[in-house]
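Researcher: Re-running this chain for the archive, since the previous output was lost when a drive failed. Same request as before.
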Amino acid sequence: MPSLISALEDDAPPVRESVAAALGKMGPVARGAMDALAGRLSDDDADVRFMAAVALGRMGPGEEASRIVPRLAAALEDPSHRVRRRAAQTLGALPDIAGEAVPALVSLLSDAECRLEASWALGRMGEEAVRALVAPLSSTDPEVRMAATRALAGCATRAREAARPLLLEASGDDDERVRTIAAKALGEQPGAAEEVGDNS
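Model: Regenerated structure tokens:
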């Protein structure tokens, strides 16, 4: 593996991309390459940055993964929407250690090209994400409110009591799509049906 890690510094972008892909296919056994791959998140070539984010998402949690969260959070502001999407997905695959990325993921809810991935990632992070979703639920943009509600629906599986009041609030939203997402999520929680009726 040391030779592959060294090859991430190759002068040719296609080589760096192929090496990142190869390391990703190795999965958790290549965790020793995570720092080097995280360095490729700032590569000049967008395809290399994308493949580095893909590879990192295939290596699973661990001590090495904790160190790369800040770089993945920074990648949420990448010029390429492909890189932003993949960084969000990778963070969502590390829900127990990616808490510091929550603010950046919440900001990504305003990104029309990436809000679906951001809401999925936030929905895997539990109570910390629930607290951060209060503001986007009050956005004037219904698309942002819908993405925030979708994230809350995901959070409800890990932070039911924290998410429930916000889902109840969303069930009275002006936008039918927001109300539908909230109602479906609440419908999966015991004893919530009566509260939805009271809130509508």
